[in-house]
Amino acid sequence: MWYVALCTIVTLIICIIHWVYSWRNPRCNGKLPPGSMGLPILGETLQFFSPNTSFDVPPFIKKRVERYGSLFRTSLVGQPVIISTDPEVNHFIFQQEGKMFQSWYMESFTEIFGRQSVLSSHGFIHKYLKNLILTIFGIESLKERLLPEVDDTTRKHLHLWTNQESVNLKEAIATMIFDLTAKKLISYDESKSSEKMRENFVAFIQGLISFPLNIPGTVYYKCLQGRKKAIKMLKDMLDERRATPGRGHNDFLDILLGELKKDETILTERIAIDITFVLLFASFETTSAALTLAMKFLGDHPSVLAELTKEHEAILRSRENVDSRITWKEYKSMTFTSMVINETVRLANIVPGVFRKAIKDVEIKGYTIPAGWAVMVCPPAVHLNSAKYDDPLAFNPWRWEGLELNSGSKNFMAFGGGVRLCVGAEFSKLQMAIFLHYLVTKYRWITIKGGDIVRRPGLSFPNELKKDETILTEGIAIDVVFVLLFASFETTSLALTVAMKFLGDHPAVLAELTVINETVRLANITPEVFRKAIKDVEINGYTILARWPVMVCLPTVHLNPAKYEDPLAFNLCRWEGLELNSGSKIFMAFGVGMRLCVGAELSKLQMTIFLHYLVIKYSWRNPRCNGKLPPGSMGLPILGETLQFFSSNTSSDVPPFIKKRMEKYGSLFRTSLVGWPVVVSTDSELNRFIIQQEGKLFQSWYMDSFDDIVGRQNVLSVHGVLHKYLKNLIMNLFGPESLKHSLLPEVEETTRQHLKLWSSQASVDMKEAIANMIFDFTAKKVISYEESKSLEKLRENYAAFLDGLISFPLNIPVTSYHKCLQGRKKAIRMIKNMLHERRASQRQRVDFLDLIVEELEKDGTILTEGIAIDLLFKEHEAILRNREDADSGITWKEYKSMNFTFMVINETIRLANIIPGIFRKAMRDVEINGYTIPAGWAVVVCPPAVHLNPAEYEDPLAFNPWRWQELELNAGSKNFMGFGGGIRLCVGAEFVKLQMAIFLHHLVTKYR
């Protein structure tokens, strides 16, 4: 008995060994390509489906190409597969369809898309179905019908997005394209349907390219369920159309019904439903993924965005009506756009593999592909082949200059190839081109989250902003409140103080700027730079775990004898023929500020001399530029002309720093401040141009030291949708409606109380008293803070903050800048504590901080000044005479009638020049008046030079409110920018004028 059992076990073991051997060594009438078949049945499926986050060739393919070459064998989901990464072999496979190969997909893929879809059909059936699809997606249909419809749909959705605080780009584009495609294919309107077809496609897409395990809970199972529901909806539509033959919809489903009614048609109901299902998916998913990546690439490459914008703005200029639709001729003229599209889909590699099956034994490059074996053509390996594409991972649309921009070739197969070239390729490119046209000519955007990719191996976007997420964070909230508390009282109190000096016949002095000396730190180089891994990272066969710190050791790079002969020697000759740039893999000293030689004083001395003579002395004073830089001086290395800029002065005139350089260089000149190259503009026309071009050529920018003080996420520093969002948030407090109904009576009551209090005092420090009055009021409205009831004095922290706001940024104890940062730190801590307390209490909204919490949970002559004061008295006394009750509060109508008061306020602010400069940064090279402002350079618009320009204001240093009689009294124009300009016009401008007007009213009517 034991003998029989033993024989059975031995036989079983022999069978298993034979089976495993046969699996690993398949039969072949020739020589199989090298490779591994992996585990029996499972093969190398798990490795194939493992996710990666790179734009490079998938690791599964890359490792095997390095080991086996461009043609190798493997096994996926129980199927033996030959994978080709060779462009010539791929081209041969595509050209031999129907002769040696036929279209094929894995069993799981066929199960998802349908066994009778256009993807799975062959021969004349495939040709028939392709021609059927061309009736809707062919060139004639694109020209006559689809082009205007795509144009209208794109405009509609882009406009819709502008009303939203943020947009999940991939989802929004997919929805836009699905709406159009579903309408053209089946006349489906999501908003009018009780069943949401789009939701079924979401489930379908998530499991399309996944491990085919059909059990509840897996993405593959959800995918099949999504398909099942979508197919049912399509079948119900088809049955409904058949039941009501008289109703024409003029869509693709009607065309299919017409074909089904024909005698001897080869079209069946199953084929009709499968083909509609595939078209609905293919027409929106791939295009939306490509457009999402295109926007990521454009955001990362300003030069490409600039060239793209230039092409589309040229189209607008050539039209009679700039708002007309895009024509076919215009679309075909978009050469650079086509290059951007090709480059995007080349890097996107949305289709990770194109499958065929050998219908007979095929000899290729000395190997045999057995009949029945699958063949996978690998587009990523072709698109990222360094032999065909220079620097293949770089996004460079210009590489397509001089190349054919067609949809398929042996080196470009984003849309397939051969007879299986995607029938919707031209439609997809049309949608992308129209979307990009309107995007770059009418809109601006910023990325607030996402942009990462994951390949499983299909492309997906894992961390896009969801609909229920807010773009407001606690950090932003605290920065906004902090800046509001400062900006709402300090500028106003300063302006009122200057006004009092003018009206009271005292010398006018601008705010003092602390002068601080700073030591130049050319040799302050550190031996290492630390980073932290934000996810698991594979490097040289090892894994760096997420959240582990990584230390880059620079001395081992700079003193590597394999790279530098005699590395400790000081030898300038070694750099001959090498690029002297700031950073490369073998030279990192400049970009990251690290020590060239660890621990050796001689090495530090050598590196200091090297940096000084090689880089600083020869490149600082003569910056690189693709055109002609404005005239000027860059000053000393690193320090620039910072000391001169921060020099104090007591004049109401244009600051000496600006005035001297205007006389020497003109109205546009270059300089350097705190290490930044800066172009200064004192020309009103240029200033207007710079401010109006925000988001196109320039963006708001401040020095790092300023951002450190006011917060990097404050309303001054953010851009695009986030700036618009924060501005609208603040308008809840300072907007016209709030001013009329809430703030006006409260400001008046506060003003009366403080003026009465001052009248009982022997003397008043006017600047301090006004600042306290406005701070008390603003703090109460913003955060319900009352100084008298609080143990911690918020105002004291702001006093320290203000002393160093515009000072030399030397952050060491005893400096104004250091005290400023400490004041900010304490104020931020207090605001943060208040915020946490509010979030815990969940009280009803009372002030601005409650609104934030809601969002988180989701110098002139005596005569002139005397007459001005007299007129000011008369204007406000007239207001009192016109009242029934002289002690009643000021009304909005009375406030708006104070014309001479507004003239006094404008003249005060014009001479005060509280804001010495408005900063912007060039987003790309900008040509102005024959000069070039290089991309990345800062631009300072100089309001004092505008406000004190004798060509615009006669006797500009005189305090003369009458000069405003013939001028507009609005908050911003090219010749008056006391409140900024463009989309950055101060959101609290009207509130400031309201406070000043009410203060002056009670001052001149009740006090002397």
Automatic annotation (TrEMBL):
InterPro entries: Cyt_P450, Cyt_P450_CS, Cyt_P450_E_grp-I, Cyt_P450_sf
Keywords assigned by UniProt, alphabetized: Heme, Iron, Membrane, Metal-binding, Monooxygenase, Oxidoreductase, Transmembrane, Transmembrane helix
MF GO annotations: heme binding; iron ion binding; monooxygenase activity; oxidoreductase activity, acting on paired donors, with incorporation or reduction of molecular oxygen
Names of the cofactor(s): heme
Main subcellular location: membrane
UniProt-annotated binding residues for heme: C422
Location(s), subcellular: Membrane
One Pfam family of this chain: p450
GO BP term (any one): brassinosteroid homeostasis
Superkingdom classification of source: Eukaryota
GO terms for cellular component: membrane
Similarity-based family: Belongs to the cytochrome P450 family.
Protein name: Cytochrome P450
Organism, as annotated: Tetracentron sinense
